Amino acid sequence: MVFSCLNSAYKIEADVFTAWMRTLTRVPESVLWLLHTHQYTENNLVLQAKKSGVDKTRIIFVPTLPKREHLQRLSKSDLALDTTPVNGHTTTVDCLWAGVPVITTIGTHFASRVSASCLKAVGLPQLITSNLSQYENLAVDLATHPQKLLRLKSRLRQQIKSCPLFDTKQYTRNLEMAFFQMHHAL
């Protein structure tokens, strides 16, 4: 099982990282991909993993890649784990576009609700949790029940073909209509 979180490291809060480490502990032989960052930050994350009883080889720092290669790599991940209280924005959309379900925890402000909005837009609201305990349990459930995860991935592949989040032509038409209406309202 390959979990991933390719959000910027500054979004990784201690309680989220602790939930990730508990998840890795509960899902033997799983790994977590994180985006390569400053060596000092990576060392601290590995140290925290070790304190949680997670071997450093299970935390894999991956380099930044050009967009196409980034999306190809993302598609090899099984399940994306979002950050909170600042969710992934572009990162979440990239994961969904690559066909990787994202588990998130919804918060009370804009930056903590972006991933939930994206998941609703692709018809996967069941991946939205209200706290880190639910988040962790959902990650473990999907990781230990591969058929559930495969059904989610299949649904996601179907949804991205027609959902509003990825229908750029319709979005453009709607935006042009809004501009037209604003212009004529003046």
Automatic annotation (TrEMBL):
The keyword Transferase applies. Pathway: Protein modification; protein glycosylation. GO terms for biological process: protein O-linked glycosylation. One of its GO terms (molecular function) is protein O-acetylglucosaminyltransferase activity. Keywords: Repeat, TPR repeat, Transferase. InterPro entries: OGT, OGT/SEC/SPY_C. It holds the Pfam family Glyco_transf_41. Signal peptide: none annotated. Residues 2-175 form the O-GlcNAc transferase C-terminal domain. The keyword DNA-binding does not apply. PANTHER family: UDP-N-ACETYLGLUCOSAMINE--PEPTIDE N-ACETYLGLUCOSAMINYLTRANSFERASE 110 KDA SUBUNIT (PTHR44366). This is O-GlcNAc transferase C-terminal domain-containing protein. It comes from Candidatus Amesbacteria bacterium RIFCSPHIGHO2_01_FULL_48_32b.
